[in-house]
Write a structure and sequence with these properties.
The complex is a heterodimer of chains A (151) and B (56).
Chain A: E1 7-9, E2 15-22, E3 25-35, E4 41-49, E5 56-57, H1 67-84, E6 89-92, H2 97-109, H3 111-117, E7 118-124, E8 127-130, E9 139-144
Parallel strand pairs in A: 4-6
Antiparallel strand pairs in A: 1-2, 2-3, 3-4, 4-5, 6-9, 7-8, 7-9
Chain B: E1 16-18, H1 22-25, H2 33-45, H3 51-54
Classes of the chains: A alpha+beta (151), B mainly alpha (56).
Amino acid sequence: MTDHYTANASAEATTFEFVSEGPKGKVTKVVRYTESHLKGLYNMGFGDKDELTNYLSDTSVTNNGDSQKVLATVAATLYVFTDEYPAALIVATGSTEARTRLYRMGIANNLEAIERDFIVLGLTAGEWQPFQRGVTYGAFLVRRKSLPSQP
Amino acid sequence: MKSKKESAKKKLPEGFTIKPGLDEQYANQPLFQDKVDRVNHILKTVGLPDFKLLAE
C-alpha cells in the first residue's frame, strides 16, 4: 500500500490527526473511532479540520492530490486502533456517494493486502456480504484477523 | 467484546506518536455524529453480519 503520513494518536487510540500536504497547502485531517449503541461496534469517522474554528467537516473536498496517501494513512490508523481493540467491528460509510465510491475503490485496489489482516464486508441490498470488486456498497465493515490470545 | 488491552507501554507502528489531550481537543463537538447515527440505524435495520462471515 502507498506510504502514509505521520500521524498523532490519542492515548486511547480512538482519535488520530495528520496533515495532508499538496497544492492546496496543509490540511489537518482527523480520524475518530466512535462506539455505537452496540458495545464493540464502532464508526470510523474521517474529515478535515477548519484551522480557524477547529470544526471538523466530513463533506469538504480538499483536492490536494494525495488521496491515495490520505487513504493509506486512514488505513494505517485501523491497525493502531485494532491493536488496542482487537475484537472491534468497524463500520465506515462515505458522507456522499462519491466518497463511498472512493472508499470502495481504495479497498478494491488494495484488497489482497487488506484481507491479509482484516475481514472486509460490504452492505448491499440490505445485507452484509464479503467484499467483492465491482459491487456497489453503501457501507463497509471490517474486523481484524488473528485475534491475539488472551491471558 | 473484549475490553481494552492493558498496556503500560504502548508500542505504535512507525509514523505514529501519542499526542496527549488529542481526544479532549475535540471534546466540545460530537465528531461525525451523523455517521454514528447511520451506524446505529444500520444496526437497527440490518443488524450485524452473520457470524460465519466474520469467522476466519
